[in-house]
Write the structure tokens for this entry.
Amino acid sequence: MDQFTLNLLFVGASFALYIGIAVWARAGSTSEFYAAGRGVHPVTNGMATAADWMSAASFISMAGLIAFTGYDNSSFLMGWTGGYVLLALLLAPYLRKFGKFTVSEFIGERFYSKTARMVAVICLLVASITYVIGQMQGVGIAFGRFLEIDAFWGLLIGACVVFAYAVFGGMKGVTYTQVAQYCVLITAYTIPAVFISLQLTGNPIPALGLFGATESGEPLLAKLNQIVTDLGFAEYTAAHGSTINMVLFTLSLMIGTAGLPHVIMRFFTVPRVSDARWSAGWTLVFIALLYLTAPAVGAMARLNISELMWPNGTSGEAVSLEQIESDPDYAWMATWQKTGLLGWEDKNGDGKIQYYNDANEDLQAKAAENGWEGNELTNFNRDILVLANPEIASLPGWVIGLVAAGGLAAALSTAAGLLLAISSAVSHDLLKGQLTPNMSEKSELMAARISMAVAIVVAVTLGLNPPGFAAQTVALAFGLAAASIFPALMMGIFSTRINNVGAVAGMLAGLAVTLLYIFLHKGWFFIPDTNSFTDADPLLGPVKSTSFGAIGAMVNFAVAFIVSGMTRETPQEIKDLVQSVRVPRGAGTAVEGH
């Protein structure tokens, strides 16, 4: 059976499973559409939350960014995992105890203001739409390669699948679909990693193989460091960026994670407050299975690529065009070249493809001596690495098909959660909560489905022109959530001093300053150049746009406290409400009927 047919079988079977589950778990009420009837078991919810959480950025993009940068991009791991701990400990149980359907609804009631609820909706939409761009980008990349079609058609197919199980199933359908998607994505991620770890180190556990030795007896990371420095790149395990930017970036990812509406919504689906805590614990276990493997995937893939480009070591000759065309070990390069995500050019006409850092001063003399005219691997999109990894390592065809299904499962699971958060913000918070409060449940359900369909169209359109690699695009969304939503939730739970005026002023200030910095740093100004992934020079020292969310959060906190101190005190009934949510006494009893 050829590879294309295998890919179709794995992807088609997984899609049939998702749609079948959605039909079985179709939402028939607003409670089922928004919160799955609050009847999801903690283990099931933990698995669904993990799938919702581990998006295309985690599955497709993160290992690629780590592979080509090394230590510095480990901040993705630290920020996303640490942020989930913050969410689990500081927010999830209290928000579940409050008993509402959405984050915006909590903010509206806690800050006793329809304006606060409206501003929260705006913040949620900005962060969620930015986030969903990265997911649709991942869908396009995965389809483009494995179904050998244009990314545009890949996005359309993926959008239709999401429409089928998210629009009709709601949170109930999405929950059980995400359980299936987690099983697919974690299997697809770990099996190739185990194969490659065995090939390189003889250890079947990738996380341990990363610190093991290769067949020659040399430690894997030491060998990788030697190869990449020989090619003029920075040492893989050394820090070579700004420490300040790395700290702010990690913090931005952490507090952005804790403010993501589509993840928080998952804790509204369990029966009791205690179940929210158990769900958080199980989610961490399920996330750890992938996140402990990702650094090994990145390092081993970088080693394999470097050795393929220089078959006899850096003291020998680079791979030849003849090898790329005839050697099965290089067949993956020709396949990925068709997608436009991988490219090379024989600039000096020597029949070989030199892969090195042509900006490195130590290599420039050697390049002149050998007649090299620059790095001839002209394009290597970081987002293809995990998907191409089984082919690079010459793994069986069924593994390649499984990875195709896994990549799509990761992108589609998070896209569904985000689209559900967007639709609930529009139908429940904007229409039902603000514009048409007398709307019937049937009309609200219809409005939720229509708004989700519109959101899918917007997501597909923006996904065709992303502002960066998938993980970079997602990092921007985390920064926006960090600057706008997280501070409002923290102050709403842990401070009775913050009033409605302070909360609104803080959210607007945090969102505005962060958006402004992103546009200036990206060089977009008023017309985004979404075809370029390069940034302008940072305006604030070494701080990049992906790191500014932490500073935006500080602005939010500061403005909220200053404005609250200058305006009227929070009403006593709101102070009592905050106290009842925060104090464990009677937890879960007063609001279980909501």
User: Anything to note?
Assistant: DSSP finds 25 helices and two strands in the chain. Residues 397-435 form the longest helix (39 residues).
